Every structure is written in structure tokens, then in C-alpha cells.
Amino acid sequence: MHLSLIVGISMFFLKFYAYALTHSTAILSDAAESIVHVIAVGFAAYSLRLAAKPADQEHHYGHAKISFISAGFEGAMIIIAALFIIYETTENLIAGIQIQKLGTGLWLTGGALVINAALGSYLMLVGKRKRSLILEANGKHVLTDAWTSFGVVLGVGLAWSTGWHYFDPICAILLAFHILFSGFKLMKQSINGLLDTADPEIDQIITDTLEKAKSEFEIDFHGVRHLSTGDGYRIELHLLFPDELTIKEAHRQATIIERQIETAIETPVLVTTHLEPARAHEEHH
To answer: CA dihedral in degrees (99, 103, 109, 111; nearest 10)?
Structure first.
């Protein structure tokens, strides 16, 4: 995250220098996205530090849910950047297009593209490996920045080579809509996490594991539910055991089933099981 912040600040100055040289709206759209990126990374860095704090008396389940707020904030910043690009490009179209030194701007933006593509891929890789939504969201934002730079290189390159400068604002508008789409995706991911929306893939893994345990231990199950904590999952379920089984043996089997679920998901998981007698189960409820 520190690397992302340092690179983000460097790209901010590089892109605005390129805009000052060229007055290209496409390059301005890229630079505007960098302002948003620096703000978002600063908040994400704070969120990552907070998410790493252990549970305390006020937050019994830890602080990792901040990752969903961080992703939502980053998504909102991306949307604001896109709207600014559309506004600025429209104003420039009305006032008249005046761009210069496109060759220099092209090389500077191309350099930013390569750096951001490498950084974004690295952040996504680490985020997925560590199951960190904060790093993954930041990686998506950096890759969005790289795609923006790619579009700018394409638009500015066409304007430079053909002399038809309208390629520049057309490119800026197209990029703005691409950025909007990325921002809405992050917002949706954030809302789903805050509302504890079930993950179908995780749900299927839990069900498959319990079906195997059902035949292995001659048990049944119900009341399965799960939620994402931002850095892993909490899973709750009820296990139905034969009435003649001792509580000691039932607990031993339940512990094995819990470990099987944790192993199958391969990410930080806390499984809580509620043990029940199978016979006359409905009456007990």
C-alpha cells in the first residue's frame, strides 16, 4: 500500500506535467483520475492499518469490515473523476480544441501506463492471495488508471499521427464511461459486503463439504449461513447427531467437520456449529 501511494503521487505530477505541455483533454482525464487515486489510496492505507487491528471490547469481530467502506469510497472517487472528465471535455469541445506537443505527452503517458499496469497487477495478485478486499480494490483502481492511460495513448497517438484533434476528446469521453463502469462495480461490491450478501461460490463449497460429512458420519445439517468479514468468512450451521451419541463424540465429529470446511475454503474462516439430537428434532424447535 505504501508502494501504491508513492507511485500514485509520482504519476499525479507526471500526468499534470504532460497536460501542462499539451492541453490535451484525454491527458487531463488521466491526470484527474490520478488525483482521485491518491485520495483513495490514502484512505485505503488507513483502512488497511485499521483492518489489521485485533478484536477489542468495542469491536468483538475485529475491524476488517472497514475494507467494504474503503472499496465503496474508492468506487465513489472513481465515479466523481469520470463525471469531471465528461464535464471538462464538454467544455473544451464548446470552447474549441487547442492541443500541442502531443509527441512528448504521448511518451510521458506511455511511461505512466507501463508503471501502473505492473503495479496494478501486483496489487491484485497480493490482494487475492491474502484475501484483502482493500488491496484488491486498490489494484483494480490502479489497473483502471492503466486502462485510462492506454486509451489516452491511443487517442493522443491518433490525433498526433492524423492531425484530426477530435480523436482526443472522443477518447476522453469513452474513457470516462469506462471509469464510471469500474466505479459502479466497486460500489456494488462494497454494498454487498456491508449488507452481508451471500457468496454463491462459498455457499456451494460449504454445502458440498457437508454433504460428504453427512454420509461419512451419518449426520444431517440445516441452518447454514455465512458472511464475509472483509478478511475472511464467518460460518454458522446446525448439525444433527444420533441421540445415542455422547456429547464428547458428537463434539469430536463436529470439530472434524469444522476443519473440513476451513480446509475447503482456504482462507481465514471461523466455523461455529450448534449440536442437536436428530430424533424428534422438529419437536425440540
So the answer is: -170
